[in-house]
# Entry
Amino acid sequence: MKYIAVGQNDGVIELFETATLKPIHKYEVHSMKVRKIAFLPGDERFLSGCDDKLIKLNSLTDLGQSETNRTNRALRIYAAHSGPIYGLEIDEKSGGTRFASSSSAQIFLWHIEISTPISVIPTEHSGLITGLSFSPTSRHLLSAGENALICCYRIPASGEESPIPEEEEIQEPESQAQEENMEIPPAEHLEQNEYPLEYQQYAAENYAENQQAAQYEQQLYQHQELPQEYPQEPAENVHEFQPHTIKTEPEASYSPPPQFSQHPQKQEYDA
# Structure
């Protein structure tokens, strides 16, 4: 490998020459922390994954052509993740045309020329997926996450169809007649405002009951007297309340006590 790429917290990717460790170029294509960088076979392009939920394809062919040694535009942008990119792996057997990426409980397969995922891999991870690796045969993909699980997925080889069968639509019978291989007349054969025969029979059988219920509801809403469910008790068994009069004696008149003078007159007695 001729170059070493280092991602920084401010979104800048700095490229160093492997032999001299001299910085030779900067890529200002991200706005947040760069977490993953993966070189494609041939050392002419590399992928970068960032906290901005984007994966970008960058070129190495313009090295030394810019006066400022800076690049602020990517070749292609891959967008589908709902969180920061924590995993990024190139399928070496595909010649660099396929790669995988991961974030929080998400794993996508990509084609290098397509900006949207070519496959979504269902996963058992409930948190961050921090590690991805293709098998040497390129038929399996392994993932490791924060929930202490390592999962292995069977994936199609480059150019093959997915081995995961598509779910077939389950056609439920429209009625019991269809289950018994009986023909059901199509709806368009019915005249306008004409109900099916089964509904007409049901309506005829329940007409009397529906009429009685309708009359009862009408009486209820008109506040009429409804028929009583239980007979009333005979009149002789009803105990009427008889008023009782209590006689009271009149209150005695009140007379104040006699008053005495503070200085009573002295009574004289003859000797």
In short: Residues 49 and 55 are 5 Å apart (CA to CA). Helices lie at 176-179, 197-205, 207-221.
